[in-house]
Structures are given as C-alpha cells and as structure tokens.
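User: If only I could read backbone structure tokens as easily as an amino acid sequence. Those tokens are not coordinates but codes from a learned vocabulary of shapes. Could you go through the record with me and say what the backbone is doing? Here is the record:
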Amino acid sequence: MPTYLTKRGATYYFRRPVPEDLRPIIGKTELTFSLRTKDRAEAGKRCRIEAVESDKIFAAARAKIASGAAVPDKADDAEPVDVQVYASRALAALRKKRDRYAAENRLEDFAIELGEELEVQQAILDGRFGPVGSLAKAEGMRNALRAIQSGEGAMALPSVGVAPTVAAAAKTPMLPELIDKWAAEKQPKARSVDMWRRTCAMFYAVNGEKPVGAIAKADVLAFKTHLIAEGKAPATVDSRLNHLRSLFRFAVENDIIATDPAASVRAPPAKRAKEARLPYDADALKAVFGSAIYTKGERPNRGAGEAAYWLPLLALYTGARLGELGQLRPKDIVQEVYQDAEDEDRKAWVIRIVEDERDGLTLKNASSNRRVPIHQALIDLGFLRYVDAARDKGQARIFPDLKPDRYGSVTGNWTKWFGYHLREVCGVSDKRITFHSFRHSFKHYARACGLDKAVNDAITGHEGGDVADQYGGLEYPLPPLVEGMARYRVPGFTLPPPPASLR
C-alpha cells in the first residue's frame, strides 16, 4: 500500500492524489493535510489510517456517480446562493479554525492548508474541474480564504472582497526587489538597508520564497512565532516586524499590494522591569574603572587609544550617547558666560553636542542638540588639558584613533571592543549592563541627587511627552544646567587616576 507520506519542514503530511474521475465529486485534485507529528514511526501509523479513510471517501464518491446523483452545477442549484452571505459564514468558520490552530501552535499548518484550499477554489472558478457544483459557493469561499490570508480575517465583513488572483500576486516583486524600490525612494542609511535585507532573508527562511502579493498574515504570524521560539527578545521581535511593516506599507502606498499583511501582527509584551537595561552599580563600576586601562595605563589597540580611558568616564558624567561622544571635535568644548541669580557674570565649560552635516556629525533627533556642563570630576582628571592638546595638534576629532565601520559610524567598531572588554576582561556578565547603561546610570544617579526632571532631560537630550520639552536644546538656560551638574555625584565611586600624560 502506498504510504502517501510526505514531509514539510519537520512535520509529516498525508498527501494522496484524487482520481481524475472523482475530482468533480470531491472537489479537490488531492487530499493533503498535516498528520500533526514529527515522529516518523507515528506518522506511518497515522498515514495508514488516513489511507483507509481516503479509500472510503473514494468509494462513496464512486457510488454517488453510479447512482447518477452527481453534484449539481450552478444552474442546478435548488436556490440561489448569496456570495457575500456565504463568504461571511465561511469567514467565521475560518476564524475559528485559525484560532484553534494558533492555540495548538500550528499556524504554519493552517497557512499551508489555507493555500491549498485556495488553489482548489480558484481551480473550480477557472473551470479546471468541470461542472463541480455551485460557483457562487466557490467564489464565496475563495473570498473568505483570501480575506484571512491577506490579514483581513479580523475585520468586519464589508472589507471582504475579491482579492487579487494568484496570477496577479505572482507578478508582484520579491522582497529583495521591494527593498530596492523602498531604499531608492526613502533613502535610508546603508546600515538600515542591510538590516532590512537580513530580516527578509530570515522571513524567507521560515516561509519560503514567494512574491510580496502572495505573502499572507499567516506567514507573518509564522515568522513571529519562529522568532519567539528562538528566544528573541520582545524588542528584537518588534524590530523585525517593523522592518516588514515598513516594506508592506510602502507596497500599499505604491499600489503593489492592496493590504499590509503585517498590519495587525504585534510583538510580545514589552520587557518586564527585571529584564530591562540596568545602570552600573558599585561593583560594576569598580570592575570597569579598576581595569588595567585605569590602573596601569594600558591602551588596547581596538580600544582606540585614549578613547578607551575617556569614553566610559564621559558617559558616566554626561549621560551622553556613545555616538555623540565619539564624534566630538575640539571646537565642541567651549567656555560660556552666563549670569547667576544675582546677575553676576559666571563662566562654565560645556560640551556642545550638535549635528553638523559638513563634518559628518549626526544625532538621534532634534532634542539631542544641547549643551552639557563639564563635571568637575572630568576637569580634575585633566579632560580640558587633553582637549587643549588635541586642539594644539590640529586634530579634527578629540578621539582620532576611532576607526569608522563600513556604515561610517565612528564608534561602530569600538562598541564591539567594549562589549568584549566588559564581559571578558572586567567580568561584568549581566547582559543587561552595556555601554548604554552609563546613560541609564546618569539618569538614575541624577534623580537620586534630586535633579529636576526637566534639567535631567535637558542634559541628556531626552525629549519627554510634555510640549514644554520641545523648547530645550542649545537654547536651554545654562544656570540650571550648571547647578544641576554641580549636584550630580555617583555614590561610593572613587575616581581613577588621570592618564600619565596629564598628571
């Protein structure tokens, strides 16, 4: 007896062709469905049982033909069928089936069965099976299937319409071609284009290569399920889904597809507090600033010279992002005059964090343009003398040994070195502590010192939801920033010695 056993991925399926003379009665060219097991021996047992059941189905169909009770065509319908009403009922049934498969973690099976049933209904409408019954029912079922497949299955019935045909879907571009079109119009950074391409390669690895018009919500759900099963963090899953959404929205805007199959697919809930990034505690600070870089004057090659010494300290005492600090120029360190509460002139050294396209300086957003008073701890360590030396040498950047990565980021390579240094050399194993945790540390310790939220946000370039937050940046009054920085301290932290050249 034929086994009729096939395998898709890790799951076994039953697949048996329907004899040609029975296809008008059964309405399918083959019987295909999941055996719901990944075990070869168990699949064989289930396959033999299904083979016997399919024999019964074929025997019943032959008996029906022999009795003359053939399936009526459209003209033989006892009463007319309303396509939209039939589609509504079919859609409700498909929703229930989808939810049941989702609960059983079988959305991949659902997507496969959906596609196969859609092919059958389209074949009926195209007349490839001859007169096999109600064309109105076939059209209604086809519409319901396409509504579920295109992501409209959760919408109200009015949104159920005749979706593009299989042929039309096949003419739409593949994902790599869609990325080319999207990049040409949107002009994203090269890093973003590469990230989008990686996401689409991962998507195809899960769902197989198919044109954009053939991608259904079930495919996106299968991709999300795969990422979660791999243990990806919620933020990572959300990022990958956003990559797909941006492409599908672009396709909709340009009339490449009618609907976005990822529109209603959401990532898992955000990280719980205990999984979020942590600030540096006393032990982590001691581990980093007790390393040989600070105690023995070592300067690892990948640490980019003095950048290995200064960048962690600057981040701890400014709350600035790594990219903002790595691109600093000597002219960004200036002394400004301001008036205190008694209208007396005062001077303060500040770091001007600005965007400058001519010099290749970029920032995350408009609120990132700002002035940050230089903490006395940094001055005591000789930071101003270090900047003066860079200025005297005519250096374009404060940290000239930082080598840009292939995307042009001056700290792209350095951050990889620091990650290794933090884990392997300093022994900080908690993955919730990274270089960016210095920024969290500043926010944390600033709050502990009683800094006003507005001042805290102005120093770190963080724009909140308040309309007043938009009036910050380089125009934010200097006195509260200087006063706030003077109050800032890191409890229990002892400054390392200054570099030998600045002692």
Remarks:
- Strands lie at 5-8, 11-17, 30-34, 333-339, 345-353, 370-373.
- The first helix runs from residue 23 to 26.
- Residues 70-78, 154-166, 467-471 have pLDDT under 50 and may be disordered.
